[in-house]
Amino acid sequence: MIQACIHIAMGAFAVAMGLNLYRLLRGPGVVDRILALDTLSVTAIAQLMLFGMHLDSPVYFEAALIIAMLGFGTTVVLSKYVLRRDIVE
Hints:
- The protein is mainly alpha-helical.
- About 85% of the residues lie in helices and about 0% in strands.
- The longest helix has 26 residues, at about 30-55.
- The termini are far apart.
């Protein structure tokens, strides 16, 4: 029962990742693309966590943590660039 729920959730997150990728590539503005990239990293984290639960392996949780740190840094840097057109103050 739990494995079936994990498979359904992985499918739902795969659809969400596809929609985020579409918005990332076809977004009308830069802000929409940054938001799509941030949401894509969050759904990738969720996908990795579910895959780690499916395989019962802790390695995927560590990979999800690394993606979370990179996703946060990327969002901050891109947002700062959009606001000020300069990354380093």
